[in-house]
Amino acid sequence: MKFFIDTANIDEISKAAAMGVLDGVTTNPSLAAKESLPYRELLTEICRIVPGPVSAEVLATDYKGMLAEAEQLCKIADNIVIKIPTISEGLRATKALSDDGIPVNATLVFSAMQALLVAKAGAAYVSPFVGRLDDISTDGMQLIEDIITMYHQYDYRTEVLVASVRHPMHVQQAALMGADVVTMPFKVIDQLIKHPLTDIGLEKFLADYKKAGKN
Ligand code: G3P
User: Fold this and answer.
1) Phi first, then psi: what are they for 53, rounded to 5°?
2) Residue-number span of the structural domain to which 98 is assigned
3) Distance between CA atoms of 117 and 115, rounded to whole angstroms?
4) What is the largest CA-CA distance in the chain?
5) Tell me, what CATH number does 189's domain have?
């Protein structure tokens, strides 16, 4: 399973990359807006740090505008993936870009039918937002299971990228379901390694060794 970090913050990306388990990055306009560097410069720096796929989202909401922005974003680096919102114009853009061999991450996906459409259009990734579904009392992870079942049924190659992840249980469930990728905030990546029994156990190992006068 691939691990992406969901942030545009260079410090967080560098820290996660140093952990040795980072495969890619997803950004969005809300995340970019929190940073001081302009989006293009941010993406250049992110692509320098992480060689894996880096999703860059278009701001246009019309077909032509999306294609024009995608063309500019692709010039930043070879590992840029174009993030396109799952609306009608976005579906057209997804099809056109995918036909041209440009990888698309179809974002803001909240239903199985949206996921089916973007797979038919050739998207490289589908990004269902599980946390935002949970927020409105809908089971976000059930959507992941449904999409995986559907894609297997028809052998779609679109990778299921679990997004809007809020806690380690989302990551665990995604792994059990066989999702291809999980993108998560730095906080969640950091939580994955932690267990109180590990800390207690380590403290005891070291204390026992010291008590025996072996230091
Ligand atoms: O990058 C898209 C997605 O992961 C956003 O997550 O936490 O804003 O719902 P969130």
Assistant:
1) -60, 135
2) 2-211
3) 5
4) 73
5) 3.20.20.70
- Nearest Cα neighbor of 69 from 86, 90, 42 is 90
Q: Is 99 exposed, middle or buried (0-12, 13-18, 19+ CB in 10 A)?
A: exposed
For the segment 210-215, the average pLDDT, to the nearest whole number, is 84
* Cβ atoms 122, 145 nearer than 8 A: no
In this prediction, residue 215 carries a pLDDT of: 61
- The structure tokens listed for 110 are 């909240």
CB contact at 8 A, 126 and 107: no
C-alpha of residue 154 to centroid of ligand 1, in Å: 28
Instruction: Report which ligand 1 atom has the smallest distance to the Cα of 163.
Output: 4
- The number of distinct structural domains making up the chain is 1
pTM (global) more than 0.85: yes
Q: Decide: residue 75, CB within 10 A, 0-12 exposed, 13-18 middle, 19+ buried.
A: exposed
Per residue in 15-73, pLDDT (tens digit) is: 999 999 999 999 999 999 999 999 999 999 999 999 999 999 999 999 999 999 999 99
Phi then psi for 31, rounded to 5 degrees? -70, -40
Ligand 1 and 124: CB distance under 6 A: no
CA distance 76 to 43: 7
Residue with the two structure tokens 């990055």: 25
> Which residues, in sequence order, are bridge partners of residue 25?
5, 54
Using most ligand atoms within 8 A of CB, pick from 129, 130, 167 the residue to mutate for ligand 1.
Answer: 129
